[in-house]
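Continuing from the previous page of notes. For each protein in this section, the sequence appears first, followed by its structure tokens. Read the first protein now.
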Amino acid sequence: MPRYLTEPEHTHSSTAKTGILLLNLGTPDAPTKQAVQPYLKQFLSDPRVVEIPKAIWWLILNGIILQTRPKKSAEKYASIWDKREGSPLRFHTEKQAKLLQGWLGQHVQSPFVVDYAMRYGNPSVESALNRMSEQGCDRILTIPLYPQYAASSTASAMDAVYAYLMRKRNQPAVRTIKHFHDDAGYIKALTENIHKYWMQHGRPDILIMSFHGVPRYTLDKGDPYFCECQKTGRLLAESLGLSSSQYRVTFQSRFGRAEWVKPYTAATLEELGHAKTSRVDVVCPGFVADCLETLEEIAMEVKADFIKAGGGEFHYIPALNENSAWINALGEMTLAHLGDWVSPAWDKSTAQQTATSSQQRAIILGAKQ
């Protein structure tokens, strides 16, 4: 493999573009054991995700997990796979990118490109950045779609971006949005999404705000994720007008035997089921697009545990997905971080004249085009 990637052919008459790249976790290409296995291997081989000595983890991963888990995971994916559109996480993220492209088109004059990529699986980060390079993007804003920062999610996504840049001879300028757990537009979008659901289905006795879990040691070592989830929960509760007894912040998707941040979502719902709670609603503020963790783990598995324990009604409130308030919030955040990279004063005709003049000067100095 060459040390550096081949650069697109340069044309002095071209106008530079700004790229906006949405980054999400990932998904297998199909709900099959054959597709899930390489996806899980890539995901669970990330040292940001599993902080166990490499040699020991290699034996566990390849000797046990990848021999048993792909089949079970494939069955879970099959239960939420859309027959027409495929993976929910992928098609929701793709739609968000298209909607953001349209939103920015109404607010930005400068040339720009919006694309999306998955940290694991397809479309890969490298493929998306290659497309942006080929389209002449010399400035790129990366937006990990994780409201709450965690080393295992946000930092890992940026690792993939930086790994690509290490192989670029002509690197673009790069900015990133680290987190938006307390962004006013994001909180407003969550609030409107929940209110809309309650207007159609009524209100619960308790609202569960379930976030993806992380090992407890990550908090002890300085990862801000747990604290940012708590702040999101508090701000959302305040926006909804809920008292402390009307909601709970919990954590799902525990893996392995180590202690993870608490309280656990599944245990909390079982507890509420044993208490004969008439109705609980669960929302997952840490996911801006529905995926396996929301549609299968929460809306199916946890629901079954709650009802089996003696609970009454269980409602899962969908993620933000293509919610217009969310697209507006995403657009406003994007504009704020683009800053001087885009300008309302940009004029296409003037830019073309400048590019043509630049080409003419370059040709005089010996350039081919």
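Done with the first. The second protein uses the same format. Note its length before scrolling.
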Amino acid sequence: MESAPRSIPGAQAIARAASLLRLVTASGPDGASLQDLARSADLSRSTAHRLLSALRAEGLVDRDAESTKWMPGPELFLMGTVAAARYDVTALARDLVRSLAVKTEESAFLSVRRADETVCLLREEGSFPIRSFVLSEGVRFPLGVASAGLAILSFLPDHDVDAYLERHPDLEATWGRPHGERPLRARLAETKERGYAVNPGLIVEGSWGLGAAVFDRSGRPEWALSLTGVGFRFGPDRIADLGRTLLAHAHQLSARIAGARR
């Protein structure tokens, strides 16, 4: 994520609080410990606790009395309900995500672009009994890492891709050598030519993913549909079939979004 302008009074504190909010919401229903949140936000425990306590006082986060873990608060639900009227496309996508899961037997997802990340909004389980659990609702990945973010990044204008890579020189150090600039640019070109992204177990060994960008009315990739599953299910012939099915559903969702926002 881009950092808040330091020239704005209070911007650093707001940016830190926002970072903690994102981490809490990404932790899922089980919540996250103070230690984990502080480490992920690169804050001291005392600073993280002070900010979380302030957020709790406003109802934005909550703390479980038994586990002491931090979880999303009730005010987030109310804010999200209001914001959904403008930003939420899950109602348009839900049956398509379900259709993907039924037709492919793999886990299917809808993710949205949020600045330099993707956030999973919907997950639908396929019928195949062995599943990948890399992705679930609320989980975030940087663009270019998971298949959804790779698909979105591939169809952004070249200058946006260049700017993104300049902002995130640490991708290789954090996610491994395949996410260095040269190999990532090669995968972006392959994705653009193929039409959909392939992640051959680069996040978790043996867990493969496919992603296809979904576009807004102006032609910008703001969402993605994706599939994940175990590697032996993603042979060359089947990947081609899965890719065609994924693209068809992504094109249908793009058309729905364009029609709904006229």
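What the second structure shows: Residues 1-6 have pLDDT under 50 and may be disordered. Residues 11-81 form a domain with the Arc Repressor Mutant, subunit A fold (CATH 1.10.10.10). We return to this in next week's lecture.
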